Amino acid sequence: MIEFKSIDNAELVLRHSLFVKSTALTLDYCAEHGGIGLTASKGFKRTFVDWAARAFDWPGYTSEDLYAVNKVLNEMDLPPLGFIREALLALKIGRHYKGEFKLTRSGKELVGNPAQLFGIMAPFFLFEFDHWAYSRRPTAPMGNWDIFLNVINVEAQTAITGVELVEKIYGVKQKEKGLFANPESASFFSGVLQPLCWVGFLEEIKVANNYFADRLYVKTPLWKVALRLDTDHYVHNK
Questions:
Q1: What span, in angstroms and rounded, lies between the C-alpha atoms of 82 and 49?
Q2: pTM listed for this prediction
Q3: What are 55-69's pLDDT values in tens digits?
Q4: Domain of residue 158, CATH code
Q5: In whole angstroms, what is the distance from residue 227 CA to residue 37 CA?
Q6: Are residues 21 and 117 in the same domain?
Q7: Burial of 116 (0-12, 13-18, 19+ CB in 10 A)
Q8: In total, how many domains does the chain have?
Q9: Which residue from 19, 61, 146, 180 has the least number of CB within 10 angstroms?
Q10: Which domain-ending residue is among 79, 98, 129?
Q11: H or E segment and range at residue 216
């Protein structure tokens, strides 16, 4: 059984959860400016995307990274921002109104409350958001979050590669070593490992060669504070 525990440590959330930190910055900006302008296709306008790229400083999507390959920035150039907007709309924290993104009453109450925001955003983003719709292999891996989290809870106490986690979960050696070499591992990365890193439960450790196959994953302090899992007793007594 997966249960989220209540968190009141905003500093811990902001230190580890880049997704919630960036969402909190978006809410702050929206509250300060009274809204965020939208394009005709309902994406955030370029002025805000430019601001977000600098403010989020998201690894792999920093302002420097993006402007190295783009003359101007659109929402699609900063994928986490699109995910954030969709999640805020689905949770009715924000809404589109007369060409702008506006905070709802509940959204305004979350401004300046990252710990409370985490308790709302993290479960939704992990368990309800369609991550595979945006992946190169748009198929969810076999299994469920109860299996995924409990296996990772045991195996990622020390650093472990994503491919090794796939092998632990499915009990089958991957024929080719690489997170995108096999359908199971590719889907597992886009729909499980990446979301867990974004919400701050896992830390991704890149190695010198920067190959996906060799990247390591380990649980962050936020994992233990926020999650209650069936395998906790085993982990704590191991």
A1: 10
A2: 0.90
A3: 999 999 999 999 999
A4: 1.10.10.10
A5: 36
A6: yes
A7: middle
A8: 2
A9: 146
A10: 129
A11: strand 216-219
